[in-house]
Amino acid sequence: MDAGLLFQNAKIKSREAELFGKEKMQRLADASTREEAMRILQEGGYPAGTDANEILASAEIEATEFFRSAAVSGYGLECFLVMNDYHNAKVAAKKVFFDSKSASHKPSGLLDVKIFEENLRKDDLGAFPAPMQEAFSEIKKVSASGALMPSAVDVLLDKAAFKDVHSRFSSAHPSVKEYFTRLSDFANLAVAYRSHRAGLSAPVMESMLVTEGEISRKDCKKLFELGVEEGAEKVSLSGVYKGALAALKEGTAAFETYCDNVLLAPIKKARFDMFSPAAVIGFYLGKLREIKNIRILFARINNGVSKDLIKVRLREQYV
């Protein structure tokens, strides 16, 4: 019995009431003006302010810091923070090599967000994990040849991220392994789908695949060659992956929403198991899903988008 985990799970349970339930989220979805939405946001426990983006960015930082404090060692919970590091690495690399400022950082993961750009400019890679160092070195090499594209930065660091996460599986809890295995499989389905639509070659598509999960490279190649409409009938995928292919037929928005919901579902199901880290993971992911939904709903109001059109983008909530 892990007393530390029991304590953190109890602490999490005391905070679950802070999360938006269906009623609060529905009220926000029905809001017709930005002022009404801001009032509902503040009634739901978010701080007062005039800039929703700033409020939500602060909430994401707070959620990440709380998760870091609750992430008991020995369960692989650091894998969730590792993904933030690789996102921040991509933002820094694009700024250094392309002077791009189009993407924003995520909250610091295991590494302080400030060190990425600074260390990359100084060519001081020692503070980064080995897979990230290798990716940065390859990015520099391709840049020196004059052939670097922003998409290559994404590919190299995405592959490194999953390599890093999978290297931590030996001590990870089954729920963590399941989450990141499915995440890597969904990433590979997206690669096959987008590569087919873009008319890329098979070798280029295969070079973009991340660490293999349950879906074989053979099946990814078949989906790439035939496209989702025909390929879905030619591969032996079942369960959540069959559902993912059906969602892809509807488009990338439906697919991304489906994947987020599938990833959260088993964590949500185990939220009352006090001997599992699921409650710690679930509260964190639930808060991030909540913030994502709120951003989507504010974007709907700001851009005058129909409520019906935005439904496909809304994620299922944790509570």
Write the layout of secondary structure elements.
Layout (H helix, E strand, L loop, with lengths): L2 H13 L6 H9 L3 H10 L8 H19 L7 H21 L16 H8 L7 H15 L5 H17 L7 H25 L3 H6 L9 H15 L7 H12 L1 H18 L8 H26 L3 H4 L9
The low-confidence parts are none
Total of domains: 3
Beta content comes to: under 5%
| Oligomeric state | single chain
Could you give the distance between the termini? 27 Å
Order of helices and strands: HHHHHHHHHHHHHHH
Regarding CATH, which class of the largest domain? Mainly Alpha
Question: What percent of residues adopt helix (DSSP H or I)?
Answer: 55-70%
Tell me what you see in this structure:
The chain is mainly α. The protein folds into three domains: 119 residues, ATP synthase (C/AC39) subunit, domain 3 (Topoisomerase I, Chain A, domain 4, Orthogonal Bundle), CATH 1.10.132; 85 residues, no CATH class; 100 residues, V-type ATP synthase subunit C fold. Helix content is 68%, strand content 0%. The chain contains 15 helices and no strands. The chain is globular, with a radius of gyration of 20 Å.
Short account of what is shown:
This protein has 15 helices and no strands.
Short key terms for the protein model shown above:
319 residues, mainly alpha, V-type ATP synthase subunit C fold, Topoisomerase I, Chain A, domain 4
